[in-house]
Amino acid sequence: MPIIKLKKSIIPSCDVDSLEKLSKLVKATCSVKGIGAYKIGFELVIPFGTKEVVKVIRKHTKLPIIYDHQKAGTDIPEMGSKFMGACKLADAVILFPQAGPETEAAWIKTAQQAKMNVIIGGEMTHQAYLKSAGGFLDDDAPKRMYEIAASMGVTDFVVPGNKPEKAMEYVNLIRAKIKNPVFYSPGLVTQGGNISDLAGNLDSWHAIIGRAIYEAKDMKKAAEEFTSQL
């Protein structure tokens, strides 16, 4: 079963600092055609807890909730089961397995055993991430992350929306290994990426948008504008 019923959608990233702001964001956007899910992270979960955050969202919608630990999959292999247990109220988790292949394989396996939907990321959207750009990670590290995940039956992947050429390299790599993959992209609008750069090239794609929605004066109107571009 796909995480999101829609083939293409906008996922509001709920990086707000209060439950009140979260409630306003979800209430304003959940009825917009083309909103596919909500992404939550540490800014809400650390101070308020997953249970309260999910409770607020569920007052307004049954759309999937994706937990992005920013970034998960960076601990020892044995911590995967504890992480999945802590995230059980979410419908899916995003992992960026930068701690290496053993951690990646263990955490994916644990997620699958826990019947938790897992989305694997490799390259992030900011500068100085890979070695060629001044970062710490080998340039081929994201490809290895995607390849391991695909070999383990993962079907959902994060690719950088503001690096469309690199994103399509990863897309083609993954497409060569599995059928009907689903892609998700942050890095859009305020980070410079354009929805149109990827929307036309991907059959199943979900655009993750944060500030451009939750900082808008009219969040519903902003959401409608972005969904119209899909």
Instruction: Give a short account of the largest sheet.
Output: 8 strands, parallel
**CATH superfamily caption:** Aldolase class I
The low-confidence parts are none
Indicate the radius of gyration in whole angstroms: 17 Å
Basic shape: globular
CATH topology: TIM Barrel
What class would the helix/strand composition place it in?
Answer: alpha/beta
CATH architecture: Alpha-Beta Barrel
Give the terminus-to-terminus CA distance: 22 Å
Percent of residues in beta strands: 15-25%
Task: Give helix % range.
Answer: 25-40%
DSSP summary, beta strand count = 8
- For the record, what CATH class applies? Alpha Beta
Question: How many structural domains in the coordinates?
Answer: 1
One letter per element, helices H and strands E, the order comes to EHEHHEHEHEHEHEHEHH
* Order of the strands making up the biggest sheet: 1-8-7-6-5-4-3-2
Count of alpha/pi helices: 10
Q: Average pLDDT value?
A: 97
Structure description:
Helices cover 38% and strands 16% of the residues. It has 230 residues and is α/β, with parallel strands linked by helices. It has one domain: Aldolase class I (TIM Barrel). The protein has an eight-stranded parallel β-sheet with strand order 1-8-7-6-5-4-3-2. Helix 5 runs parallel beside helix 6. The protein is globular, with a radius of gyration of 17 Å. The two termini are 22 Å apart. The mean pLDDT is 97.
